[in-house]
Specification:
Elements: H1 2-5, H2 9-15, H3 17-84, H4 94-133
Helix pairs in contact: 3-4
Length: 134
């Protein structure tokens, strides 16, 4: 192809108008291909960066959820221990602690239910993007 591009004007005239059109078309096609490849590389780089960010966010959410769940369990265990110790319910904050712990547990469950579809959708989109990229 490079040899065709370097033909002299005289050689092109000999080969005819069709060849000149072919040469112009191939130059345009080469330029288009270069643009498409550059765009593809940019898109792949962006996909890779966003996938890495999503993995980091997912890992952080998992760590945060695990920590909150552990704290909630520790608080519930403490409330149970206080109850077993025989503290009178009317004289302590135990009912309020239990209510708060229950509300926290419910919020954690709600958060988990809300995030699961989003994380699943992200995983599907990531897999589709990876399959298209290949």
């Amino acid at each position: 192809m490079a040899q065709v591009h370097t033909l002299s004007k005289r050689q092109r005239a000999v080969l005819g108008e069709q060849t000149s059109k072919f040469i112009a078309d191939t130059k345009a096609a080469d330029q288009t291909l270069e643009k498409v490849q550059a765009s593809r590389h940019a898109t792949e780089a962006e996909l890779s960066a966003r996938s890495e960010q999503a993995e980091q966010v997912t890992a952080e959410l998992d760590r945060g959820h695990a920590a909150l769940t552990a704290w909630c369990q520790a608080d519930a265990d403490l409330a149970d221990a206080l109850s077993v110790a025989g503290l009178p319910t009317g004289a302590s904050a135990l009912p309020r602690i239990r209510a708060e712990l229950s509300a926290i547990s419910e919020r954690l469950s709600d958060m988990d239910r809300q995030l699961q579809p989003a994380l699943a959708a992200h995983a599907r989109a990531y897999q589709e993007a990876r399959s298209i990229r290949r």
